[in-house]
Amino acid sequence: MSATSDGGDETHNVTTTVSSEFKDDFDRALKKAQIEGHVPLNMSRSEAIRNLMQAAIADPSLMAGPEDDGGE
Questions:
Q1: What share of the chain is helix, strand, coil (3-state, %, to 5)?
Q2: Is residue 39 domain-resident?
Q3: Can you give the pTM of this predicted structure?
Q4: By three-state DSSP, how is residue 8 classified?
């Protein structure tokens, strides 16, 4: 995260472990979003994940995950 929830500027590294297939699927989805003009062409995976985290803060129901496969 780039900032703490109280508005401070302290930063933290957030790590997770996912399968190579899951990472590759995410990278393909990011590339598709870039090609379709939904996000900037230079958006990094880290920036995309930060955006997703911000979206989940605004709408916690996003954390429920997809119903069809139970999420990752």
A1: 50, 0, 50
A2: yes
A3: 0.74
A4: coil
